[in-house]
Amino acid sequence: TTVTVSATASHPIPSTMWGQMFEDISSGDGGLYAELLQNRAFQMVTPEGTTAALAGWKSLNGNITVVADSNPVSAALPNSLQLTVPAGNTNNIGFANVGFNAGLNVIPHATYKASFYYRFQKASKFRGSFVISLQDGSGTTLTSQKVSITGSQTSWKQVKVSLNTNIAPGSTSNMFAITLNGDSAAGEVINFAMLSLFPPTFKNRENGMRQDIAQALADMKPSFFRLPGGNNLEGQTVNTRWQWNNTLGELVDRPGRFGDWGYVNTDGLGLMEYLHWCEDLGMQAIMAVWDGYTLSGASLAENQLAPYIQQAIDQINFVIGDPKKSEAAALRASLGHPDPFPLKYVEVGNEDFFASDTYVYRWRDFVTALQAEFPDIHFIATSNAFNPILSPNPTEYDVHVYQTPTWFAQNSFYYDGFERNGTKYFEGEYAAISTNPDNIFGSTSQGRLTFPTMQSSAGEAAFMTGLERNSDIVFAASYAPLLGHVTHNQWTPNLLAFDAGSVYRSTSYYVQQLFSLNRGDEYLPSTLPEQLGTVFWSVVRNTSTKEIIIKISNTASTPSALTFVLPFKNVASKGSLQLLTGPATSSNTPTNPNLFAPVTSTIITGETFNYTAPAVSVNVITIKAS
Ligand SMILES: [NH3+][C@H]1C[C@H](O)[C@@H](O)[C@@H]1CO
Questions:
Q1: What is the DSSP letter of 43?
Q2: What is the pTM of this model?
Q3: How far is the CA of 25 from the centre of ligand 1 (A)?
Q4: 374: closest CA among 352, 348, 346?
Q5: pLDDT classification of 363: cutoffs 50, 70, 90
């Protein structure tokens, strides 16, 4: 196949082209959010003896239970862990947290920050100390600190200690423990609340992100971050929807909520943490507002919308408002960020194509009110494009697709036929997740992928060459879901998988990274691939580095010989090739995490040059040309 490239760009490529979609789907608490203690504040649990209430916690010779505290540490956190020290036990008595999914990573030569509140249930003459420690799976102390306490402390007192580690333990089966001397403390009853243990965080942010996962995400150089979801915005009910104002301020004041993926969200990763994260990665937020539809399928009636429209106005004012004019903006200033955050896009709901009939009035009432308040914001609709017809007319739509590798390879022309009528598209969620076209969302035994495969990633890459060709109307695209725990998850595949100690880069992660790190600022038309063929390409130009960047996906099981004809006088005789290829149905997995990785090499180039794309491969060729 000969690919003739045009010297005249057809259109500029938006700077927002490649980014990330995020929601807490086994990915926030216990994942990107760096808190190491599972169930740290007993939020939303049923106290008094239910084992679920003590999830993540274990007794160390003491009697522990979760109580609905008669004098709770805060209105937001009604439950406490109550330790009763039994008589006649001379061991160290107390309790421990084993981390999320029984994994608590301890890195060497680092400072861990522990904090908790405690109070004696009744005054006593006790004088002693807590031993606050990190222990490995066999109970060997890795590091510890002592804090003196007295039985007169019947009001809540917060303890904060730094725990400095030295050697690395042998595994992630470690625990955070609080103990005291059983002899002298016999009979004492002590309540604990809002316990927390943080490792060093990304950019040392207070209440920040886990370093290795954050770094893997940063290495993609994303331009936007869609938050807070996805289904996890919606709530199964109106009262369990995501509410921006419940996710701010001191951790002791955050009630948490039942997330949409079957577990409690601490909301320690809240709106301010998301916005700091966007700042740290130089991304702009694509922020969603709740719009009156819950995942159970219920829509609010039109005459019920007003308070939720106000809550959305306040949410946006929290991000961009003037502290002198808006209470929500004043709250942002009081939390240390008087200047507005950058925000251009606000998404109204999530996947409202499930409730198109009510979206007609929900969109109309929300956007009429929001656009009046925020004339410079673009509001993104989440129903199917132009079906139903919405008013005001959406400037952007968010399109989601989960399909097979073959579907993606055969639909790279999805946007070529779209009318150029001023509407732009956000490919907000896409991934090849199953090889079974008759049951995309089935189980792994029905074709669902556990991890991306080279074949699924090559299919996505083919589709992405089409997104790049159509970036005159596709302004942003993000794979979904971004992140998920390797085993304790509600959805596979994920772009990145992780466990307590590691993050695993998938073949699709490398494809996303190859496209994001090798951007052009303008698109160069070229001979079109066969729409139902097997090899696909896009050609872009980086006008500042004067480089031509050719992305090729060969989805076939045989190599594909290509000839490129470049219309430039001075074309370098050598170019760089980044090649991702390997066995079609294989993946990077926790047991074989580096089976696939892009390999960089030099190839012969020129005004006309040949290149053979290996079977099932994603190729990025970069050539200096002017
Ligand atoms: N059901 C998918 C669509 C929804 O928006 C996300 O929360 C889910 C996983 O990416």
A1: T
A2: 0.98
A3: 9
A4: 346
A5: very high
